[in-house]
């Protein structure tokens, strides 16, 4: 629904999320046509601050690739695409200063 309303999307894949889970075989039919301005894999050595820096860098790079200024994209929200990303979405949204359920659970520590 968000994509249909014209909002650009960025995917942030949770640490340890298997590549085969990103394949068409595991993505719901209703989501297979989604296009992302960028996709980020949360890498094991990254801290939360490094992940956020790389999210912002990916947004700037995507804008630049479209001939737009680096600050063209504004992060307006953070939504989990599935159960595996709920805690991370809560933490990221809180740290990014967008609407949030708040950081609770394993990622809050």
How would you characterize the overall build of this protein?
With 109 residues, this protein is an alpha+beta fold. The protein has two helices and two strands. It has a two-stranded parallel sheet. It is globular, with a radius of gyration of 14 Å. It starts with 8 loop residues before the first strand and ends in a 13-residue tail after the last helix.
Give a quick account of the main beta sheet: strands, pairing sense, barrel closure.
Answer: 2 strands, parallel
Give the uncertain stretches in residue-range form. none
Report the mean per-residue pLDDT as an integer.
85
- Envelope shape: globular
User: What is the end-to-end distance?
Assistant: 32 Å
Gyration radius, rounded: 14 Å
Number of helices: 2
Strands, total number? 2
Q: What order do the helices and strands follow?
A: EEHH
- In terms of structural class, how would the helical and strand content be classed? alpha+beta
Q: For the largest beta sheet, what order do the strands appear in spatially?
A: 1-2
Question: What percent of residues adopt helix (DSSP H or I)?
Answer: 25-40%
Q: Please state the oligomeric state of the protein chains shown.
A: single chain
Beta strand %: 5-15%
